[in-house]
Design brief:
The structure is a homodimer. By secondary structure, chain A is of the alpha/beta class. Chain A has 14 helices and 18 strands. In chain A, 33% of the residues lie in helices and 26% in strands. In chain A, strand 5, helix 4 and strand 6 form a beta-alpha-beta unit. Chains A and B meet through helix 1, helix 5, strand 12, helix 11 and helix 12 of A and helix 1, helix 5, strand 12, helix 11 and helix 12 of B.
């Protein structure tokens, strides 16, 4: 039995998929039953490393979808449009879709899932998150017995590469980014990666699967690494932490969710301090990892290459195989496997996270005066925030601050070092976010605190 | 639609499964459709933490299998018999089976798979390897597009716990084992764990799935941690390595396997040195991790709790859900999904591994004589084995050796320190196993080498 495959796009991922289909030996025998029938490309005249018969190629993606020989449509062209419309067209034609397009799924996943459910076809998205790492299928099929408490991950390889080098070399963000662009690890326009948007797309998808309901992409609090100071990476290291861009979806509350009620989720993307022994802390370079915490499974982690032609093609082919395999169960008249179809079964509600609990890293610029640590400590204490460590790093020169920031204090030790400043780093114990914010507001009002220079969540 | 579940065994895993089925809220909605119909226990009168209706319990596993209300049979009793016979009985009755029984699957997997294929039912085994870690399903369903080069893992939690403590505390094997037994991390009879048999069971299963053909369990070279010297753990740490009990299945040769030919595999279990930055090196305590290397995916790793009631129950319920989900596709007359059924499609052949390539750690006892390092180095050089490092550790007292081991050498520096010995540790570069063996044989014949005290493979 041959199954006809149509490809929309023949970039690096599309070419990787075509290469697997063209060399089935040594792979699962089902790969040999997949046959590439039609491929939509932008430019027919372009020479390509992989030789494909000229009659397979077309510049019309619609022609691929409408070709009766194409039974599964694989969308690897990227971008929002025409990708979204083409996916919907394939669904309307009753053809299952495999896509690596995280941007479309994060924004139009609900519309696409509804169309797929109505038409009774699968839309599989293993390649949309985590490159070659099997994470979508395990979330849908292997962890269904669990109540998921948290999904957190390093799911953007570009930023992890930059952060790894900042940590290893003590280099500044801008320098590493420029180098990463030169090496091809970062795009010419790096905004979607470094500002956290790509990771937000992916955590929206993971949360939707983990919690069984669509997560509004626009509501995800997102902060990138583009304003991260190398100083914080270095101080974190001295205190036993690494800084990673972590995307998290966490359920607030515990126990069984109330039936019929929306499940409250705190979903966010930002630079985060991880203790060096944390499972995600050892994820270096362009690798990705996703940590899933559930009851009763505990912590499981999925690790591997988060991008690249080969790994992403591996994930796309996994989805194609899944559709081909299940087709042998019941033919075209069959129902959908509810695990594979991943329909949503409840409402998710994004909440502001002020009741979430975590540790915090704060870097303060203060005047180098006796008693300042005590006053800072008192502000935390008054808000019920207990402190794990408070460290004064070497007095430092002002960076980007006017001299006006430094005032008064002419009668004590500081007076003998006019303009001297201290840098104080506080790591709190795990506290409720709202209490921490309250303490921070009080600290900002202290006369000898000139600036809250950095504030990072800490797992 | 309710699906009737029959449990064979109500130990910690069985009770964990029953607890999930009894509290479906917040889990995948399919869990609510699973209903526990019959449970086989050893002793009806025993009090249990989980209250089950008395009419569910029976002492007859056959009665569970034969109960018409039972549609899926879950075997969590463990042991070889009667587990094997009961699994076969369920298959013969046309009922799909979920089992956590690695010992049965490693030994009788071929017989069971053949019976299941003939009868057209699934036998799913997610819980048999890696506890709660989704690894069986990803291998079967998500990595099918790959040519698998190597599967390696830390898949025995007891030994990893012992090794982690030996490394952290510098403690001796026997002391940590005794403590682990007291804490319940090791069995009263620890043989299956510490001698590597449990890990060999599991790697046989993983290799069978990764390479698509049964792997003869009895042919797996197996060495445990029970003769591991704390000294080697400590020296390895000084040289930048950790010692782990690693189970490996590696394909010899590269590229596409020759069609119709058996695929040559080197499958083994033994203490192994891992560089500290290796993905498996950070797996501590009772956790497990499995690293899969394939083309084109690269390296992907699956990490989590390798044992325990909750994690193992999570894996069992995953399998039950898979069967329940696919049942909705095509009813009872449907065919099998070839990915989920995991039929074998080729022959695997265990080879002796003399052509495999890896690094090696060797600890030698030598006389403390000038020139001994040169002579050892020459033996390696003559066999074409290049050395990464050769380090002489402090001269040490004999441990368990008779004085007769120390002879001659009365004319030079050593003569002034009669009985003094040196301990030399060599780490080779990656070499072919046969060349390394040849060098080692020559070294054993050197008159100033008194003993090859330890020899460990190194990744």
């Amino acid at each position: 039995m041959t199954i006809g495959i149509g490809l929309l796009g023949l970039g690096t991922v599309g070419a990787g998929v075509a290469a697997i289909l063209a060399s089935p030996e040594g792979r699962h025998p089902l790969v040999a039953e997949l046959e590439l029938k039609r491929v939509a490309v932008r430019d027919l005249s372009r020479t390509r490393p992989l030789q494909l018969a000229a009659e397979l190629l077309t510049t019309s993606p619609e022609a691929v979808i409408d070709d009766p020989a194409v039974e599964i449509v694989v969308e690897v062209m990227g971008g929002l449009e025409p990708a979204r419309s083409l996916i919907l067209r394939a669904i309307a034609a009753g053809k299952p879709v495999v896509t690596a397009n995280k941007a479309v799924i994060a924004r139009y996943g609900e519309e696409i899932a509804a169309a797929a459910a109505a038409r009774g076809v699968y839309v599989l998205i293993e390649a949309a998150v985590g490159g070659g790492i099997p994470i979508i299928e395990p979330l849908k099929q292997s962890l269904g017995g669990n109540r998921i408490q948290r999904v957190s991950g390093i799911i953007n390889g570009t930023t992890n590469y930059i952060l790894s080098r900042m940590a290893d070399e003590g280099a500044a963000y801008a320098d590493v980014l420029a180098d990463a662009q030169r090496l091809g690890y970062a795009e010419a326009d790096p905004a979607a990666d470094v500002q956290g948007g790509d990771a937000a797309d992916k955590i929206a998808i993971l949360a939707g699967l983990a919690y069984g309901g669509p997560v509004p992409r626009a509501g995800i609090a997102t902060e990138g690494i583009d304003r991260l100071d190398a100083r914080d990476v270095a101080y974190a290291a001295q205190l036993g932490f690494v800084v990673k861009l972590v995307a998290t979806a966490e359920r607030l509350g515990s126990g069984a969710p109330a039936p019929g009620e929306p499940i409250p989720l705190d979903v966010r993307v930002h630079p985060t301090l991880l203790p060096k022994q944390h499972p995600l802390a050892g994820v270096h370079g362009v690798n990705n990892a996703i940590l899933v915490e559930g009851d009763p499974v505990g912590q499981v982690m999925f690790y591997g290459p988060g991008a690249g032609a080969g790994p992403t093609a591996s994930a796309v082919v996994a989805d194609i195989l899944n559709i081909a395999g299940i087709r042998q169960v019941g033919g075209s008249e069959a129902g959908l496997d509810p695990l594979l179809a991943a329909s949503s079964w409840r409402q998710c509600e994004l909440v502001d996270g002020s009741t979430s609990r975590h540790r915090n890293y704060v870097r303060l610029h203060t005047r180098d005066e006796a008693g300042v640590i005590g006053r800072i400590g008192s502000c935390f204490g008054a808000a019920g925030v207990s402190i794990q460590s408070i460290v004064q790093f070497e007095a430092r020169e002002a960076e980007g601050e006017t001299e006006a920031d430094v005032e008064g204090g002419a009668t004590d030790r500081a007076a003998t070092r006019a303009g001297a400043k201290a840098e104080i780093v506080v790591i709190t114990h795990e506290v409720q976010e709202s209490h921490f914010r309250q303490a921070l507001a009080a600290i900002e009002n202290l006369s000898d605190v000139t600036k809250v220079a950095a504030c990072l969540r800490t797992l």
